Amino acid sequence: EVECLIKLFDTLVAESSSRFAAAGFDRNMFRDTLHSAFGMTDDMIMDRVFRTFDRDNDSCINVVEWVEGLSVFLRGTLEERIKYCFEVYDLNGDGYISREEMFQMLKNSLLKQPSEEDPDEGIKDLVDIALKKMDYDHDGKLSFMDFEKAVRDENLLLEAFGPCLPDIK
Question: Residues with Cβ < 8 Å from 115, sequence gap 6 or more?
Fold first, then answer.
């Protein structure tokens, strides 16, 4: 499987016209790959997945980051996927998913209903529901421990704030 991932990486990089092509994927190429291979469409989620894969923060995903990232993405244990999803949702990297971060994620991943007067009201209600269900220490934000406990109690909460894992297909 690792050999196949490396071959795929080399093939995709060879097709790229990016200035990063010698080193790996840039953000746009990675997003195109997420979209075509996994059907991801949410720009914010794809950007966060890129940042989670890009371990050294050089704005380029090299072959090691590609293989390690896809390992968790496609075959990760529950623990690895919990950590990965938490990193995707923790927008500012402070170790917590705040009310504002939840709002931003949900705002982008939910369909807008044209009949709603204030679509943000429904999103605020969802954030309140998520906090009630997941914020075990009642500090108004989700720590990694809160998130992990909530997901272990209910696995569907793994992608509570947007689809950042591939579906079963």
Answer: none
